[in-house]
Amino acid sequence: MNKNDLIGRISKELRCPKTTAANALRATFETISDALKKGQCVTLVGFGTFLTTERKSRKGRDPRTKKEIHIPAKRVPKFRPGKQLKKAVAKK
User: Fold this and answer.
1) The 3-state secondary structure of 74-91, one letter per residue
2) In the chain, where the domains are located
3) Coil vs helix vs strand at 69
4) 58, 72 contact by CB (below 8 A)
5) Rg (CA), the chain
6) Strand order in 48-55's β-sheet?
7) Fold for domain 41-92?
8) Phi and psi of 70, rounded to 5°?
9) 68-71 and 42-44: which strand pairing?
10) How far apart (Å, rounded) are the C-alpha atoms in residues 52 and 50?
11) Largest CB tally within 10 Å, which of 20, 21, 23, 91?
12) Rounded to the nearest 5°, which phi and psi values hold at 15?
């Protein structure tokens, strides 16, 4: 399923125009992104939690030259699925 498929499903489920569903989805993504940029967690009970973690700096290797390189520390987004989502996915 891609973004357009998701917009279509939302539109059908809510019986609203696709543009309204697209705007709602865009606003949701922007709100989650803004919260993560500020270092906040976004918890959707039953679905999961979006959060950020710090990745330490480390040494790596350039695959072409085999030369050792320094990879700087950075903040990365993560998602932890909720109990209900795990349960729903586990059903066959």
Assistant:
1) EEEEEEEECHHHHHHHHC
2) 1-40, 41-92
3) strand
4) no
5) 19
6) 42-44, 48-55, 74-81
7) HU Protein; Chain A (4.10.520)
8) -100, 125
9) unpaired
10) 7
11) 21
12) 55, 55
Decide: helix, strand or coil at residue 39: coil
pLDDT at 58: 95
- Report which of 75, 81, 83 is spatially closest to residue 40, judged by C-alpha positions: 75
Q: Which pLDDT band, with edges at 50, 70 and 90, does 92 fall under? A: low
The tokens describing 52, both together, are 């950020």
Closest alpha carbon to 42 in 29, 54, 55: 29
* The two structure tokens encoding residue 58: 């480390």
Phi, psi angle pair for 37, to nearest 5°: -60, -35
pLDDT in tens, 21-71: 999 999 999 999 999 999 999 999 999 999 999 999 999 999 999 999 999
Report the distance separating Cα 60 and Cα 42, nearest Å: 32
**Measuring CA to CA, which residue among 14, 61, 88 is closest to residue 23?**
14
